[in-house]
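Build the 3D complex.
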Amino acid sequence: MADRPRFYLTTAIAYANNKPGLHTLYEVIGADVIARWHRMKGDDTRFLTGTDEHSVNIAQRAAEEGLSPRAFVDEKVGLFTAAEAALGIAPDRFIRTTDPDHVRSAQEMVRRAHANGDIYVGAYEGWYCPNEGFKAASDLLETAGGWRCPNHPDVELQWLTEKNWFFRLSAYQERLERWFLDNPGAVQPDYRRNEMLGFIRQGLEDFSISRAGATWGIPFPIGEDGQTAQREDGSWDPEAGTIYVWYDALINYITGAGFPDDPASFARYWPADLHVIGKDIARFHTIYWPAMLWSAGLEAPRKVWIHGWLLAADGERMSKSRGNFLDPVDFVAAFGSDGARYVTLREVAFDRDTEVSWDSFVRRYNADLANDFGNLVNRTVSMAGRYLGDDRPAPRPADGSAPLAVAWDRTLADYVGRIEACALHDALAVLWEFVGAANRFVDSEQPWTLAKAAKAGDEAAEAHLRDVLGDLVEACRLLGLAAAPFLPASAPRVLAQLGHTYAYGSDGNGGPAILDELVWGAQAADRGSVAAPEPLFPRLDVEPTVA
RNA sequence: GGCGGAGUAGCUCAGUGGUAGAGCAGGGGACUCAUAAGCCCUUGGUCGGUGGUUCAAAUCCGCCCUCCGCUACCA
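Done.
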């Protein structure tokens, strides 16, 4: 394990206040594909996702439902893990900010910032909803009675001042700007990087990292006097307050690598190779987070990838409250696990917002999975079995005589490049160009005509038939394997129909290095039997529920 | 207001000086191995508007219109 390259990637952790929507899980599906790709490459891969469970808001919601905060989040977390399982998402750890090691981790980070002189007690001022706590100005609702909390429009807001700890982000302005300039790949795509750079250049203000009134949170480990807030019996002084969101939620990334309990693991996996996040939290991940890490003597992540959103057909952001929400469980029921993964990642560009609709997903599924790829495998397996018997035909050598072998070289290079660049939708487009080439190859060679000639005793036709079908079987093997990170449930079925073994585990671990397997003819010497053809992606004829 | 991006076929988009492209959707055709799928052909656009530079502009420059992102403490 130690000699393998490691790859540590994370998603943002989801706020556990509701059931998950497809637009939330979209990011996790994409990250799961990247994780599987690295596992299949043979990298020592660690994929972290999870839930963010603290906050005044969650405590309030729990109280409204007559639940303890813990029971409330336990229920929500169950919905997330079930939906992720349905989508074939296989994290190496599902982290919860209520996990004990995460609590230790967040507190240690606060202590380090304090030891480094980066936090101080200041006054936090803001609009305060008596039912919910401090509210950002951008989050308020204008009513006849003035500005109000959107969740409690009948309650008058108060302008409150509270003593809180602040992090000296202002001290890191120059270093952050230099980091952006020296590491142009660290924040991507470029236009997001430019936005963040512009934000830094406007001047950075300190931000508060504690809340005095909140109780559902990680105890702030330091008292106002600068001494530990832990009492002799091990409990925490409530007067010290709790850690506010950023020193809680963001910390999950290092907890997941082993901080602070497992230094060996942490040394191996940190800094993270990739944080996949949504555009709404770009600032916190590309500006707050590196500064917090530096303050603790740790390295910034190597790359933060900022993806866009699924938009409803009217261009509106999907959300439960807007009612244009796709339920992942319904979605998987309609499209299947792999179908759901494929259509979201193919239809939505991974670097920008995209309008989607149920119809667009159905069209994409039928065109790409049922008609093009599924049918290619089906007709290939069917013809190989019917014309040649069970014995699987071998591909022609990659010496230039087989057109598909020549085309595959370019396809593979492009595919790998796109997937490594997080251009997941482009990666699939490249692969499906090859699907088209294989389908055209069938029609240009007309194996059924060759089979008739062979049956009539034409030996040259029979030899050519064997070559053509051997090439097609190989094309299907390569496609099934290459697409496995996107279609993890279907890939073993593809290979099985072709009479090939599938050596990877259910999370993509444990098999041979995929780049070796993706060479044309890599398994040409192995013998096998094609199985009975079985449709992989049944066509969808009806439009089920509307989004 | 400031900074940045975008407006190209019904839909999603590619195309940064040289006679308008792809996929899907629509129409037609030949075949038949296949999930009535695949393959071939095809309808369709004054490339947001306007003025300019140039032998030549979707592509460069000016102005205008429309839309979008960022412009600090939401989890």
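DSSP finds 18 helices and 18 strands in chain A.
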